[in-house]
Design a protein that fits this description.
Blueprint: H1 7-10, H2 17-22, E1 24-28, H3 45-48, H4 64-68, H5 74-83, H6 92-99, H7 105-114, E2 119-125, H8 151-161, E3 165-171, H9 186-191, H10 197-214, E4 218-222, H11 231-241, E5 246-247, H12 256-261, H13 267-278, E6 312-317, H14 336-348, E7 351-357, H15 367-383, E8 397-399, E9 405-411, E10 414-419, E11 427-430, E12 440-443, E13 452-455, E14 458-462, E15 473-478
Parallel strand pairs: 1-2, 1-7, 2-3, 3-4, 4-5, 6-7
Antiparallel strand pairs: 8-9, 9-10, 10-15, 11-14, 12-15, 13-14
Helix pairs in contact: 14-15
Length: 483
């Protein structure tokens, strides 16, 4: 169909099957902030954002410039100690541009494909305003404020040649090359976005240019968009080129009169409002899609505790930062076992996982990040059929009589039971699960069918002797139960 630039027309777009099927994508944050590679450590975003000192102690290394602008912050102290008081953030540009000469996009894509990712989302412009492509619309405030290689183009080519899908992140509202004022609290966070005609034209031109030049299949905007823009024009343009494209939900526009009214609200009230806004909601709930179209919602460093009809995608770093933070230790990184369990839980509830890598300035993916990715991919090699192409079952969660956690997925006539805990003995008994008499049960990674018994409402499954350790064990049942 031909989409018009109206909300009514745009909202006829359905989430394409490929995005439901894909489950796992790679997010990439790479830019000037990858050179200092600094943020406070041992601090979780989901806890930090509610504290009064969050912005001065932001765990996100990609927010380096904002943290640097806050007097007395750990980042300012680090910057002065490392580079000197007179060293400007813009002076990092030649350092970064020299470092990226050794970057090989094919190496990245080989790794992403090996570990089971089905799509990639690259940050094309983060909040500092630095561009990762040679735009026809250069920054009017800063000369040559872009990478000297077409990172967007080179990576997009490599991704598509490998058969993966490509998406672009773009910081729609925040651009600190246009606004020198730091974000220090919730009020300044909500009003820091740019609204000038100059910036509106700049951002619009970028989105159209990215769509036309590189043909992405995912538009991943962040932290809102300038008010006064008819976003349906961008969305319809994109969908008419790519009917199977998807658009995220972070395009909220804050009108000028609303910005002014924020001055009457306390910091606590504003933080509560932000927390409420960040709480995942079904499409249409509380008018969530009355003014803005989107295909999927994007919880960050958190998940959803029930099956959602609305498609969703959790994004998070392997550590506590998206951009590379050289001071993070193993304690700051998620363990692969925890990551796999989280991933299974997400998939069972209609979600995808967009897992971020934060490369070093020269494009090297840190060894600890690569190690966790490879462990994650090794599990997927064995158990991927219980993930890719699946849909939530009637319910997402279950338990054994030992109170071990279970998640369910399904695909065609196949039913998958994901055991989040290792069985304490060579059998499990799953509560309230009845199956057909002809059902065959297999432990993924092994060939033989398992013995089983229906014990009233419960299902007893006998495991083989000496079965291998796994972060999550997956049982495949055919046919699938109906209740």
């Amino acid at each position: 169909m031909k989409y018009k630039a109206t909300l009514e027309s745009i909202q006829k777009h359905k989430v394409p099957e490929w995005f439901h099927d894909a489950k796992f994508g790679i997010f990439i944050h790479w830019g000037l902030y990858s050179v200092p590679a600094f943020a406070v450590t041992h601090r979780r975003f989901i806890n930090s954002v509610e504290s009064v000192d969050h912005y001065a102690n932001n765990p996100y290394a990609e927010w380096y410039l904002n943290s640097l602008r806050i007097t007395g912050s750990p980042t300012e102290k680090y910057h002065i100690k490392t580079y000197g008081k007179q060293f400007h953030y813009d002076e990092i540009v030649p350092i970064f541009n020299d470092a990226i000469n050794s970057w090989d996009p094919i190496e990245w894509v080989e790794l992403f494909n090996k570990v089971g990712a089905k799509y990639v989302v690259l940050g094309t412009k983060h909040h500092d305003g630095f561009l990762l492509w040679p735009s026809k619309y250069p920054n009017p405030r800063k000369k040559e404020f872009c990478a000297n290689r077409d990172i967007v183009g080179e990576l997009t080519k490599a991704v598509k040649e490998k058969g993966l899908k490509m998406g672009f992140y773009y910081s729609g509202s925040l651009d600190w090359s246009f606004n020198p004022n730091p974000i220090t609290d919730t009020k300044s966070f909500l009003t820091n976005g740019n609204t000038t005609p100059e910036y509106v034209e700049y951002a619009n031109n970028h989105w159209y240019e990215l769509i036309d030049r590189y043909e992405p299949i995912i538009l991943w905007n962040d932290i809102g968009y300038p008010p006064g823009v008819n976003l349906n024009e961008i969305f319809s343009y994109f969908y008419n080129k790519h009917p199977d494209g998807v658009i995220n939900n972070r395009w909220i526009q804050i009108p000028e009169q609303v910005r002014k009214s924020l001055n009457t609200l306390s910091e606590d009230t504003l933080r509560d409002n932000i927390k409420q806004a960040m709480t995942p909601k079904e499409k249409g709930e509380n008018g969530t899609s009355r003014f803005l179209h989107y295909d999927f919602i994007t919880p960050e460093y958190t998940s959803i505790n029930t099956i959602f009809k609305t498609k969703w995608e959790t994004c998070r770093g392997i550590g506590n930062s998206f951009g590379y933070n050289q001071y993070e230790t193993e304690d700051d990184y998620i363990k692969s076992e925890e990551l796999i369990k989280m991933f299974v839980d997400i998939v069972s509830k209609n979600g995808n996982l967009l897992l971020n890598v934060g490369p070093m300035a020269d494009g090297t993916i840190p060894k600890i990040q690569e190690k966790i990715l490879r462990e994650f991919g090794k599990w997927l090699e064995i158990n991927g059929e219980a993930i890719y192409g699946t849909r939530p079952w009637i319910k997402a969660e279950g338990k054994t009589i030992d109170n071990n956690e279970i998640r369910y997925t399904q695909k065609n006539d196949e039913f998958f039971i994901h055991l989040l805990d290792k069985p304490k003995k060579n059998e499990i008994i799953i509560k309230s699960l009845k199956i057909d008499n002809e059902t065959k049960i297999q432990l993924l990674g092994q060939d033989k069918n398992l013995d089983w018994n229906q014990v009233g409402e419960n299902l007893q499954i006998i495991f083989p002797e000496n079965f291998k350790d796994s972060p999550v064990y997956v049982l495949k049942l055919m046919p699938k139960p109906t209740s």
